[in-house]
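Supplementary Methods, section 5.1.

A reviewer requested that the exact input to the structure prediction be made available. We therefore reproduce it here, unchanged from the version used in the analyses.
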Amino acid sequence: MDIVDKYQSRGFDCVCGNLRMAARAVTAVYDRHLRSTGLQASQLAVLWAVAGMQGASVKEIAAKIAMHDTALVRNLRVLEGRGWVSVGVGTDRRQRLFSLTAEGRRVFAAALPLWNQAQREIASALDGGVEPMNARLLRLVRQVA
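The structure derived from this sequence is encoded token-by-token as follows.
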């Protein structure tokens, strides 16, 4: 038996594969709930970070939410284009600082109850609840990122 035969049925013992599958499934639930706001789950995560870090740079936001700079910039451009995020200039004129606009606050406030609905739907599918799983996932991110 060669190596391909041995591993051809991609076992469900691969942490990376299983986390990616779960992430796609969970994202679909949140996207469905958030659809009426015009936000996707990934955009809400960025909007949430900007709301909590008003005036932060791309590097600061990316580090906080463990997102690659280029993916974050793509999301920020979409949010800026919709008028939900504004961009200011830091003391170093090359530095860009991001904040929520009034419209961004309105969209964020409208999204939170829908996010709560999605959170409850996912929690009901998890044995043991959301809190222990989130604690383990956050610990994993801190250890390997």
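Strands lie at 56-57, 85-89, 96-100. These observations are discussed further in the main text.
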